[in-house]
Design a protein that fits this description.
The chain has 271 residues and is of the alpha+beta class. 30% of the residues lie in helices and 25% in strands. Strands 11-10-9-12-13 form a 5-stranded antiparallel sheet. The chain has a 4-stranded parallel sheet with strand order 2-1-3-4, with helices on both faces.
């Protein structure tokens, strides 16, 4: 089989380990989406025959356009360009979750952070996030109007989503799924005052009842094959989903490269 990685970082640990598993019998290559063609998102042409399957570990407009071009030519892409793009829009992500009955944090959209700052009687504390997920975006807890106005110095015109803060332990349960296989870890919330810190191992048996099934259901709802679900315990094991990511890093998870290699080969064979 010929497997192609759409990524600027083929040396990413999980991709490198997956490549090492596949290369004794299969051909693995990579495409940096930012270096192909003329750089215009609408012109992603890559000449040559199609690979048997593409793994999309990039989220830029260029990467999504490239993935769509392969899909239009009949090649399987994991995750699809549409599913990847959906997970970048936090408003659309939350709306789909609520329609599907998933326990997702109640979310509303505001056209700009400045517009939010103009609202009266906000129920602090709030969680404020950039509507469009990307590197170095805005994700923060806001405890006062003064803090909100201070953020406007940098982020005034940023479209945002707003969530009421849910009291919790301060730890995110990181649930990753590859082709239906669940992996788990604990990590301090990015809203924690003392920073995120290291990711800690978590045995699946340590998850509350039903959380593994919830993680798999997310894949069905969002048409994802490789994804992450960030869940907090809202009390007595009640899950609350706070984020969903297409093709996250999944670092340091024993068995993850094997699961990804198996998923890629199954998708290639189906195609």
């Amino acid at each position: 089989m010929r497997i192609c990685l759409i990524t600027p970082r083929p040396d990413h640990p999980v991709l490198a380990a997956t490549t090492a598993l596949l290369t004794p019998r299969h051909q693995v290559e990579s495409i940096d989406p930012e270096s192909e063609g003329d750089g215009a998102p609408g012109d992603p042409a890559v000449p040559g025959p199609l690979a048997d399957v593409y793994l999309l570990k990039a989220r830029t407009p260029r990467a999504l356009a490239l993935a769509r071009s392969f899909e239009e030519r009949g090649a399987p892409v994991l995750n699809s360009a549409a599913a990847t793009a959906l997970c970048q829009d936090r408003a659309e992500m939350a709306g789909l979750a609520r329609r599907a009955g998933l326990p997702f944090a109640a979310t509303r959209t505001v056209a700009s952070l400045a517009g939010l700052a103009d609202e009266r009687d906000l129920p602090y504390p709030l969680v404020v996030k950039s509507r469009h997920s990307r590197r170095h975006d805005l994700v923060t807890r806001v405890d006062s109007a003064a803090r909100l106005r201070g953020l406007c110095a940098t982020w005034a015109q940023e479209p945002v989503v707003v969530q009421e803060f849910t009291a919790n332990s301060g730890w995110d349960h990181k649930l990753w799924v590859i082709g239906g296989q669940v992996f788990a870890a604990l990590r301090r919330s990015e809203l924690a005052e003392d920073g995120r810190g290291p990711t800690l191992p978590l045995e699946l048996g340590g998850l509350p009842h039903g959380w593994q099934d919830l993680a798999r259901t997310v894949g069905s709802v969002y048409a994802l094959e490789v994804y992450g679900v960030d869940v907090i315990d809202a009390g007595d094991g009640t899950p609350l989903i706070v984020d969903i990511n297409a093709f996250p890093g999944i670092r340091g998870q024993k068995g993850a490269p094997e699961a990804l290699a198996g998923l890629a080969l199954r998708a290639a064979r189906r195609a």
